[in-house]
Write a structure and sequence with these properties.
Strand content: 25-35%
Number of helices: 4
CATH class of the largest domain: Alpha Beta
Distance between the termini: 85 Å
CATH architecture of the largest domain: Roll
Order of helices and strands: HHHEEHEEEE
Oligomer: single chain
Radius of gyration: 26 Å
Number of strands: 6
Helix content: 25-40%
Largest sheet: 6 strands, mixed
Strand order of the largest sheet: 2-1-6-5-4-3
Shape: elongated
Structural class: alpha+beta
């Protein structure tokens, strides 16, 4: 009887150890996923990496993120150099740009906004940065900052995917003097 009880306890102990081992493996996997997400590395599904291959195929979301980034970078380049062709390519023909002035909303259509730019050499001590991008199917929003020597511009772009291209369809913006001059 004592021998059977010892076997039951031993079996229960082994089952418990197996269960704990599986839980620890799951926790380790979750920690790896969290670390990858925090580092900004893509987490891939099984179908994203062909078997036996080290090649990684970007997911739908990653591809769309890259296309949106390219559109915004085109906008930045046009803004920095006064190139209205590049700016115009990034903006949909119906794009409206909105600012606040004297406690009122000022709205510029695309043509009026583009008329503010004149070709020039690239601005020194200036650059653009994408702060965030959020994508839902064929629409997206992006928060961006453009800094010059004296000012910090913050833009929020609403974007739409039309015929496989992403366009800025709406922009709201504000700016302020830089404090780190």
């Amino acid at each position: 009887m004592l021998g059977l009880l010892s076997l039951d306890i031993l079996s229960a102990g082994l089952l418990l150890l197996t269960f704990i081992s599986k839980i620890l493996k799951m926790i380790r996997s979750l920690i790896c996923i969290v670390i990858l997400l925090l580092l900004g590395k893509p987490v891939l599904d099984a179908q994203d990496t062909p078997q036996g291959s080290d090649t990684v195929t970007p997911t739908f979301s990653e591809r769309e993120h890259q296309k949106i980034t390219a559109t915004i970078e085109l906008y930045f380049e046009g803004w920095m150099t006064g190139d209205t062709t590049k700016l115009g390519q990034a903006m949909h023909r119906t794009c409206q740009l909105k600012n606040i002035k004297d406690n009122d909303v000022i709205i510029y259509d695309r043509a009026k906004y583009l008329s503010f730019f004149k070709p020039r050499s690239r601005r020194e001590n200036a650059g653009g940065e994408i702060i965030s991008i959020n994508i839902t199917d064929d629409i997206a929003s992006a928060k961006c900052e453009i800094h010059t020597k004296d000012r910090l511009y913050t833009d929020y772009f609403n974007m739409m995917k039309i015929e496989e291209r992403w366009y800025i369809v709406d922009k709201i913006a504000t700016n302020k003097a830089r404090k780190d001059n």
